[in-house]
Specification:
The protein is of the alpha+beta class. Strand 4 and strand 5 (about 175-185) form a beta hairpin. The strands form 3 sheets. Strands 2-3-1-5-4 form a 5-stranded antiparallel sheet. It has helices at about 1-85, 105-115, 120-125, 155-170, 185-195, 195-205, 230-240, 245-250, 305-315, 315-324; strands at about 90-95, 130-135, 150-155, 170-175, 175-185, 210-215, 215-220, 225-230, 270-275, 275-285, 290-295, 300. Helix content is about 50%, strand content about 20%. Among the domains are: about 90-185, L1 transposable element, RRM domain (Alpha-Beta Plaits, 2-Layer Sandwich), CATH 3.30.70; about 195-250, L1 transposable element, C-terminal domain (Rec A Protein, domain 2); about 250-324, no CATH class. The chain is rod-shaped. GO terms for molecular function: single-stranded RNA binding. This is L1 transposable element RRM domain-containing protein. One of its GO terms (biological process) is retrotransposition.
Length: about 325
């Protein structure tokens, strides 16, 4: 009996020792897990702090970028204004054919244009005094669809203003060709003004007395008030709030395929057809047009590409103008 009791006590002792070892090991494992969890928590807090710092840095950088962009826009505007100011004494002659009488100097050609269209200016001011005159680009590319503009600087600013006023009243002619004389402006200002072409034409048809103010602001006269718009987007937002005016500016029928494609109401939409050629175009701003072809391709063209497309697919510009 004593031996059995001793064996049982030994067995119990071994079991207690085994349990103690396992308990100690478990405690070590738990402590290790707690340490790892604490380490992970510390790392998460560090990451959160680092992420917050990055977010704050990003916000700060975005604000700095916005400030830089504003400064760049201001400098671009100021530079453009300075360039326009430097061109204030210049005339821009548009549409003078490249193959005009090359035996005559540009000085004589400009004087002939003024003599042919507004001789009273020469009678009042005398001879045209030109400081310099040149083509807008030095070399003509045969692939270009329009002749280069001619830039002329007159010594007499009063004569320049008189020529501009006369050119606004009627189109000028030179040897049977129509030429336009306008104030010379920077390329960016001309581009901004060109974006108004379609809207300007439609506003004129509607009797809204459109005007382009310096540098590229459109004004119209509506309901006894003068409204001004700096961008085509401003104008489109304006007519969207006036359904009666919106309908007048919509050339495309409302049930057309393009009206379901999200075309901006009030944009100039035109359908062009000739035999198997068909496309819808509308103004998308900055002098570009969006084109939907018969094969359902959507393209963005500038005015030069559109002009090339017209010549390839229409029998003469006169027919195309009628289609518009």
């Amino acid at each position: 009996m004593k031996d059995e009791a001793k064996e049982m006590k030994d067995e119990v002792k071994r079991m207690k020792d085994d349990l103690q070892r396992k308990s100690d090991q478990k405690e070590k494992d738990n402590q290790k897990a707690r340490d790892e969890i604490q380490s992970l928590r510390t790392r998460v807090k560090q990451l959160e702090s680092s992420d917050l710092t990055r977010q704050q840095d990003t916000i700060k950088q975005n604000k700095e970028n916005e400030k830089v962009e504003e400064n760049v826009k201001h400098l671009i505007h100021k530079t453009d204004d300075l360039e326009n100011h430097s061109r204030r004494d210049n005339l821009r002659i548009i549409g003078l054919p490249e193959d005009h009488d090359k035996r005559k100097s540009p000085f004589i050609i400009l004087e002939d244009i003024i003599q042919e269209n507004c001789p009273e200016i020469l009678e009042q001011e005398g001879k045209v005094e030109i400081e310099r005159i040149h083509k807008s680009l030095p070399v003509f590319n045969p692939q270009w669809t329009t002749p280069r503009n001619v830039i002329a600087k007159l010594k007499n600013n009063q004569m320049k203003e008189q020529v501009l006023q006369a050119a606004k009243k009627k189109p000028f002619r030179y040897h049977g060709n129509t030429v336009r004389i306008t104030q010379d402006l920077s390329a960016s200002t001309l581009k901004d003004r060109k974006a108004w072409n379609m809207i300007f034409q439609k506003a004129r048809e509607l009797g809204l007395q459109p005007r382009i103010k310096y540098p590229s602001k459109l004004t119209i006269f509506l309901q006894g008030k003068v409204w001004s718009f700096n961008t085509t987007e401003e104008f489109q937002a304006f007519i969207n709030k006036r359904p009666d005016l919106n309908r007048k500016f919509e050339v495309q029928p409302q049930n057309s395929r393009e009206s379901s494609k999200g075309i901006v109401p009030g944009a100039e939409n035109t359908k062009i057809k000739k035999k198997r050629v068909s496309a819808y175009i509308h103004l998308v701003g900055k002098g570009n047009v969006q084109v939907y072809t018969q094969s359902q391709h959507k393209l963005i063209w500038d005015m030069g590409t559109l002009a090339s497309w017209r010549r390839m697919n229409m029998e003469g510009s006169q027919e195309f103008q009628k289609a518009e």
